[in-house]
């Protein structure tokens, strides 16, 4: 039996973290579009070169091309027992196109797991991140603060002052959330209509609790 999984959830909801743990426990490849693009560029595939052309001219890679790249990735040998998609599909047109591509191969997704975290918690989580400009270490003032307030733990950084990156400022996070609600969130209802949606409450709970709920969902599916 294959387990073909899509992870959904807003920025900072923790889908990458969960996908990584699931990959470890269930022996499934954790697939992100970033990794697919990089692999295709490295191997110089024709799809990769096409995508490169769009990226170099500052354009978005069209949905059709992105879907084709993902569809090619999930037929590779390591996906025999299934896969975990993280960060794809990103929009309703991508989700629809991906369904068509899967159907054309007589396949379908088994489950879409949505980690549901409120905007307020996401803002709180992401805006409390601080990074070291020297070594790139990331701290979270609430969940993983440095030993000494405001400076990097790494001895080689010699007390370098931590900074808040522009990506982690509240205004940037709010804008990402707005784009998420507008562009990506409609996918949740789409998979709901297909009967494969499972929602996990991620607000106010630890990543361990979220993972426990995901294990329950997958074990009910026979994993
Ligand atoms: Zn550092």
Relevant terms:
9 helices; 223 residues; five-stranded parallel beta sheet; single chain; two-stranded antiparallel ribbon; Rossmann fold; 7 strands; alpha/beta; binds zinc ion
Bound molecules: zinc ion
In order across it, which strands form the biggest sheet?
Answer: 2-3-1-4-7
CATH topology call of the domain at 3-118 and 184-217:
Rossmann fold
Helix content range: 40-55%
CATH class group of the domain at 3-118 and 184-217: Alpha Beta
Summarize the structure.
By secondary structure, the chain is of the alpha/beta class.
What do these coordinates show?
The chain has 223 residues and is of the alpha/beta class. The protein has a domain at 3-118 and 184-217: Rossmann fold (3-Layer(aba) Sandwich). Helices cover 47% and strands 14% of the residues. The protein has 9 helices and 7 strands. The protein has helices at 15-26, 33-43, 46-56, 63-73, 92-104, 119-127, 170-184, 186-193, 207-220; strands spanning 3-9, 30-32, 82-86, 111-116, 129-131, 138-140, 197-201. The chain has a 5-stranded parallel β-sheet with strand order 2-3-1-4-7, sandwiched between helices. A two-stranded antiparallel sheet has the order 5-6. The termini are close together. Zinc ion is lined by residues 132, 134-135, 137, 152, 154, 157, 160.
């Amino acid at each position: 039996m294959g387990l073909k999984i899509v992870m959904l959830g807003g920025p900072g909801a923790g889908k990458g973290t969960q996908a990584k743990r699931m990959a470890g426990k269930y022996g499934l490849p954790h697939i992100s579009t970033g990794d697919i693009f990089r692999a295709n560029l490295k191997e110089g595939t024709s799809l990769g070169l096409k995508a490169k052309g769009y990226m170099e001219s500052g354009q978005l890679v069209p949905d059709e091309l992105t879907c084709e790249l993902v569809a090619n990735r999930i037929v590779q040998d390591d996906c025999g027992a299934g896969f975990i998609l993280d960060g794809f599909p990103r929009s309703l047109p991508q989700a629809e196109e991906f369904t068509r591509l899967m159907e054309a191969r007589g396949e379908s997704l088994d489950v879409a797991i949505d980690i549901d975290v409120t905007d307020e918690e996401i803002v709180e989580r992401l805006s409390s991140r601080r990074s070291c400009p020297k070594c790139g270490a990331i701290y979270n003032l609430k969940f993983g603060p440095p030993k000494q307030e405001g400076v990097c733990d790494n001895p080689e950084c010699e007390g370098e002052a931590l900074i808040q990156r522009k990506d982690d400022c509240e205004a940037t996070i709010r804008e990402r959330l707005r784009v998420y609600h507008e562009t990506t969130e409609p996918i949740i209802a789409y998979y709901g209509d297909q009967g494969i949606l499972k929602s996990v409450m991620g607000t106010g709970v630890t990543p361990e609790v979220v993972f426990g709920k995901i294990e329950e969902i997958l074990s009910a599916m026979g994993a």
